[in-house]
Write a structure and sequence with these properties.
This protein is α/β, with parallel strands linked by helices. The strands form two sheets. It has a nine-stranded mixed sheet, sandwiched between helices. The model has no long low-confidence stretch (mean pLDDT 92). It has helices at 45-55, 70-81, 125-133, 144-156, 175-180, 194-204, 245-258, 263-277, 290-303; strands spanning 5-10, 14-20, 38-42, 60-66, 85-90, 96-102, 108-112, 135-140, 159-163, 183-187, 209-213, 219-223, 226-230. Helices cover 34% and strands 24% of the residues. The termini are far apart. It is built from nine helices and 13 strands.
Length: 306
């Protein structure tokens, strides 16, 4: 069977309601007047990954549970409007949803509705195997059904990546993902020792590359046993919203990886895409194209110390 899918994205389809608040943490009050509007939009981590990868020219297919509800309609419309293939598994509990509070500095606080899932949720194995057989690579969200998909993906022989997001390095739930993936990304937000966590992932799992993103400090890349600090890219405009920045980083990193770039340049791709995402309100979908990404990377490399 031909590999006509560059990246199979598993999980992470859903709807966020974005609320721009005057500050975070938000002090208690009986009410707040929100003049920027309160708007639901499709785009949780898997959606943003699929959108970012597709905009970069990679043939992308998204697989997840989606409900027959208005939120599911938003997810379907996002994929349809951007030409991204979506295989839906019916979810009687409804489409995943969350509320994201976004402060003036772009930081966010996410409130996830955990009622939109069931402990017995599993991707149909025949569907998963068929899609994996067509894929060069699979990016696995850390949502519950994806944990049960890891052995099937390993048997299919596709390379794997995952984003552990704000893992604290201790919660055992994340370890199955961390140790099964060839490329592991995570945020430094909750880590007391990012280097130790990255090295533990590489030591106990199959990861060839571990990337710890650190926001305005850039990122840390562990590859070939060496930890390298990757400076941050300068955002091309005012920072307004950090929603989707980590997914943009991951999508650009995988684009570099799948087009044969060395790990360090992939990480530079990630910093450029992540910085751009912070300048885009999360009520809009504006992923970088490959030409825009490469132009941004060229600008970074032109000003880098020799």
């Amino acid at each position: 069977m031909s590999r006509d899918i560059d990246v199979l994205v598993l999980g992470g389809a859903g709807v966020d309601t974005i609320v721009y608040v005057p500050e975070l943490p938000l002090p208690y009050a009986d009410s707040y007047m929100i003049d920027s509007g309160i708007r639901p939009r499709a785009g949780q981590t898997g959606d943003f990954m699929a959108l970012g990868l597709s905009a970069l020219g990679l043939r992308t297919h998204h697989l997840d549970f989606v409900g027959d509800d208005p939120e599911g309609d938003l997810v379907r419309a996002l994929h349809r409007d951007h030409g991204i293939a979506l295989t839906e598994i019916p979810q009687p509990a409804g489409t995943k949803r969350a509320v994201n509070l976004v402060g003036p500095d772009g930081r966010r606080l996410s409130l996830y509705d955990t009622s939109r899932a069931h402990p017995d949720d599993r991707f149909p194995e025949d569907t998963l195997r068929a899609l994996a057989a067509r894929s060069r690579h699979a990016h696995v969200s850390i949502t519950h059904p994806c944990a049960h998909a890891l052995p099937v993906l390993a048997e299919a022989g596709v390379t794997l990546s995952t984003d552990l997001h704000n893992w604290d390095g201790e919660n055992p739930y994340h370890e199955a993902f961390a140790y099964a993936a060839d490329v592991v990304l995570l945020s430094a937000t909750a880590l007391t020792d990012p280097e130790a966590t990255a090295r533990r992932i590489a030591r106990h799992g199959r990861a060839e590359i571990v990337v710890v993103t650190a926001g305005a400090e850039g990122a840390y890349l562990l590859a070939d046993g060496e930890l390298t600090h990757v400076p941050p890219a300068v955002p091309p405009g005012p920072v307004v919203d950090s929603n989707g920045a980590g997914d943009a980083f991951a999508a650009a990193f995988l684009y570099g990886r799948l087009t044969g770039e060395p790990a360090l340049r992939c990480a530079v791709y990630g910093t450029v895409a992540g910085a751009h995402a912070c300048t885009v309100p999360s009520t809009r979908s504006a992923a970088l194209t490959d030409d825009e990404l490469l132009a941004g990377v060229a600008a970074v490399e032109a000003t880098a110390p020799r």
